Amino acid sequence: MPLVRTAHGVLHYDDVDRVAPWQTGSDPILFHHGIGASAELWAGWHPALADRYRLVAFDMRGYGRSHVPPVGFKWSLDLLVDDLFAIADAAGLRRFHLVGESIGGTVALAAVLARPERIATLTVSNGAHLGASIQRVEAWRRQLDEGGVKAWSDTFMSDRFHDDALSPERRAWFAAQQEKWPRDSILNALGVLVGTDLTTRLREIRCPTLLLHPDGSPFIPVPIMAELHRHLPDAELNVIGHSRHGLPYSHADRCAMLLRAFLDSRKTG
Questions:
Q1: What percentage of the chain's residues is helix, strand, coil (to nearest 5)?
Q2: Cα distance between residue 78 and residue 95, in whole Å
Q3: Structural domains of the chain, ranges and CATH numbers in brackets
Q4: Listed residue (217, 208, 226, 212) closest to 267, CA to CA
Q5: Which of 130, 127, 120, 123 shows the shortest CA–CA distance to 95?
Q6: Which uninterrupted H or E stretch holds 32?
Q7: Read out DSSP for 27-46?
Q8: What is the pLDDT along the chain (269 residues), one digit of tens a residue?
Q9: Considering all CA atoms of the chain, what is the largest pairwise distance in Å, rounded to the nearest integer?
Q10: 97 with 268: CB under 8 angstroms?
């Protein structure tokens, strides 16, 4: 299990390299999940991508095998961007395709702005350039304080998935992963997004960008993603029907095939 030691604790990542030795010239793909998810979220994307691309995913700070900060730790968007590049450096990814979902999508946008020369293409799934409101932080805080992480997770599951979106086994697995998130990590990660607005810098993002968005996210309405699309110089927007904020898990096959087609059409690497 690879890891990287940062100034603020250890980060763990998974590295899947099944590319045949005669397949050369493709930049690897780095995945960043969001709040309530884990590096294993992306397993459903592997079949469509692993024959051509090395795949690296990590547990973001605050969850799972990675560093869970203590009370009083200073969270920031810059820190999460630094974490992303720490993983890339440890895995030897000089230049890579970047995929982020939810807060991972916001971090990915900020990462491209910070070090554009490192990013071949950008994919944002159910994420945005605009952050959370303080009202949502307070609503989640009430849920966590009154019912604990289990109650918060139960409510979040309905925000993520339609009732018919998953088999019972897949739903139970995701819920179990989500319930492992520590209360403070949930609130502190969400707090990073409060007031975030990257709008004025979006035209600086020159790399080809794929936008994947659910038609029914309760957090990011489709018009917000359409606004992001309008501001990006080179972007493709796909709105996926009958999906909610758990799009990259419930529609993993569809999302991965859209990414594969996008990468093939751009012939990057």
A1: 45, 15, 35
A2: 20
A3: 3-266 (3.40.50.1820)
A4: 208
A5: 120
A6: strand 29-32
A7: PPEEEE--TT--GGGGGGGH
A8: 699 999 999 999 999 999 999 988 899 999 999 999 999 999 999 999 999 999 999 999 999 999 999 999 999 999 999 999 999 999 999 999 999 999 999 999 999 999 999 999 999 999 999 998 888 999 999 999 999 999 999 999 999 999 999 999 999 999 999 999 999 999 999 999 999 999 999 999 999 999 999 999 999 999 999 999 999 999 999 999 999 999 999 999 999 999 999 999 987 44
A9: 56
A10: yes
The pTM of this model reads 0.98
Does the CA dihedral 164-165-170-171 come out positive or negative?
A: negative
Residue type, 242: H
CB-CB contact of 222 with 128 (8 Å): no
AA letter at 183: R
Tokens representing residue 231 in the block: 């501001």
